[in-house]
Amino acid sequence: MTPRKILVGDDDINVIAGLKFLLETEGFQIQSVTTAEALLAMVKQQSFDVVLVDMNFRLDTTSGQEGLALIKQLRQLDEQLPIIMMTGWATVELAVDALKLGANDFLQKPWNDDRLLHAINSQIANAEKDQQLRCLSEENQLLKAQSTDPDQLPNSHSPSMQHCLSQLEQLAKSDMNVLLTGENGSGKSLLAQYVHGHSTRSEQRFVAVNMGALSGSLFESEMFGHVKGAFTDAKTSRVGRFELADGGTLFLDEIANIELGQQAKLLRVLEESQFEKVGSSKTQRSDARIISATNADLDQMIASNQFRQDLFYRLNTVTIHIPSLKERVEDIEGLAQHFLSRAAAKYNKTAPALADDAIAALQAYQWPGNVRELSHLMERVLFTCFDPTIGAVQLNLPNQANSASAPIKDDRELTLDEIEKNTLISRLTHFKGNASQTAKSLGLSRSGWYRRADKFDL
What is the enclosing helix (H) or strand (E) of 293? Predict the structure, then answer.
């Protein structure tokens, strides 16, 4: 276990020597400074588990005002850092003022060894608990926003998908970065969870982030976190995705949709496993296994200088292509039954059976939206079919010959959200699932498209 780091600030070298002897004997790693300026500089540069600070740095000063001012400055640098103040000129008023300004504990010199060790260990334990709570809070918010399918993978009968799952199960046992390629809706998010669930990291967090939905101004804050006051709206500190995924798996979906400037920042973290929060100069480490996914042709993007080749090599230790639904026709019937049963359980309804002509129609359809489109179709048909058996007519699949140009019907009973969703689906179908072309045709930015796609679970 890495020793806990304690920073001691005191202008008396005899006090520093005594503290170092005691604390190093207890297994702590100690660094010391003799001025307030040096203390602040160290906190800016490094992370410490506790700072142990004298209230007075001038030998002729006993008021404690230096220490009070130092507490304010330390809190501006790090609002979570445990601060224990010490003085030989203690008063109740000084102790109260120190605690009000943000000190975590207040001890009088000469110190009692047991009392000092108890104070340090208590502050370390409290800091760890607070960090876990912050991470859980951020994780819960992320889980609410993530649209990955929580259900297990249905059984697959197609050779292409069985081969894919076999490869992923073997790769899961390693810590290699994995790049998943394939069309929109082919199940890359679910398969990333599959890899995590079969890995040695399965007990740790799986954190997913849609890279296409991150605008340039939000990228660093979302990925690396920020400290309070780092920018105008930073009223509290934020835990970033790399910190959340430390020890677990970080899934970078739609990796091709990040800007070149963001690619450079991401590359540095992948190369060094280090990052700094926005507004902080402290370097933090993250041991996160990276799984990324895209439906884009990264080779073509590299050739056109839209994607960094060095980042590509960092991401694709191994690349796995996820077959489209049309490449795994053998699985369509089983998937349809699975999604129909799942929707029926969700809404407490009886699932109708699929007639032979319905299965044939499903297998003949081109599925531009792949597995996600099939899932939505089965949920919709559960409410539109009133017969015990679903036939091809009830599926109401688009006519493949003219679906690209067919206008959306004018229905005065539709809500604005329904009209918007229908428009997005129609345009996405027209461009055969290509998100970039769809966004461009609608006059949307990439982040604008992905916000709407997330809203309607497209």
Answer: strand 289-294
Give the residue range(s) of CATH 3.40.50.2300 domains in the chain: 5-127
Residue 324 near residue 373, CB atoms below 8 Å: no
Question: Does domain 327-455 fall into CATH 1.10.8.60?
Answer: yes
CA distance from start to end of the chain: 45
Architecture of the domain spanning 146-321: 3-Layer(aba) Sandwich (3.40)
Instruction: Note the pLDDT tens digit of each residue in 195-212.
Output: 999 999 998 889 999 998
Q: Are 36 and 50 in contact (CB under 8 A)?
A: no
Q: Report the top-level CATH class of 5-127.
A: alpha beta
Segment 50-58 shows an average pLDDT of 86
User: How far is 337 from 301, CA to CA, in rounded Å?
Assistant: 38
Sign of CA dihedral 261, 264, 269, 270: positive
CB under 8 Å to 353, separation ≥6 — which residues?
A: 388, 389, 390
Q: CB count, 10 Å around CB of 61?
A: 14
Instruction: For CATH 3.40.50.300, list the domain ranges present in the chain.
Output: 146-321
Joined tokens for residue 391? 């036939």
Model pTM score: 0.61
Say if residues 8 and 16 touch (Cβ distance below 8 Å): yes
